Amino acid sequence: MLSIRTAVLALALHCLSPVFAQDPPDPVVRNSVLPVAKIESLGWLQGHWQGNEDGTVTDEYWMPPRGGMMPGVNRTVAQSGRASFEFMRIAETDNGITFFASPQGREATPFLMKELSETHVIFESDVNDFPKRIIYRKQGEELHARIEGTIDGKAQSMQWKWKVVEPNADAAK
């Protein structure tokens, strides 16, 4: 019995080694709940971010962390003029830092923070299939966002790349 357990453990570690090899180079805090993390550790996310892909313009705004939360909003306008929006909030809760997503103003879905570094954060939901995971990564003056999950049993993802918008750029338009 002991040798079978040892073999299973060795196989599990072997299968997981590619996952661990993909860790980012910066220090990462990992836990099922990250009680030591404070909302201020997400200050790198604040600001106005914008991307334009094939005529679809996406704006994402994050207020600075204050009072235990960071409110945000996303607006996407397709080339056709059709628009969508999402209210967002990252907040310190009893369970740890949590991302609340309210697409089109619907009831908020919570995503618990699972990983955090100085340049990236991963939130996950135990109840949502898509998205199951929300990932933000800052690279220089760019912010990369990605959502992952399953739809009809198939792995799916969407990603965006935004650049920081200067504070007075909107006023000039």
Largest sheet: 10 strands, antiparallel, barrel
Percent of residues in beta strands: over 45%
Mean pLDDT: 83
Strand order of the largest sheet: 2-3-4-5-6-7-8-9-10-11
Low-confidence stretches: 1-35
Task: Report, as a whole number of angstroms, the end-to-end distance.
Answer: 71 Å
> How many strands appear in the DSSP assignment?
11
Structural class: mainly beta
Shape category: globular
Number of helices: 2
Element pattern in H and E: HEEEEEEEEEEEH
Radius of gyration: 18 Å
Helix content: 10-25%
What would you note in describing this structure?
The protein is mostly beta strands and 173 residues long. It is 14% helix and 49% strand. The protein contains two helices and eleven strands. The protein has a ten-stranded antiparallel beta barrel with strand order 2-3-4-5-6-7-8-9-10-11. β8 and β9 form a beta hairpin. The protein is globular, with a radius of gyration of 18 Å.
In short:
This protein is mainly beta and 173 residues long. Helices cover 14% and strands 49% of the residues.
Q: Helices and strands in order, then pairings?
A:
Blueprint: H1 2-21, E1 29-30, E2 47-53, E3 56-62, E4 69-77, E5 83-93, E6 96-103, E7 109-116, E8 120-124, E9 133-139, E10 142-151, E11 154-164, H2 169-172
Antiparallel strand pairs: 1-7, 2-3, 2-11, 3-4, 4-5, 5-6, 6-7, 7-8, 8-9, 9-10, 10-11
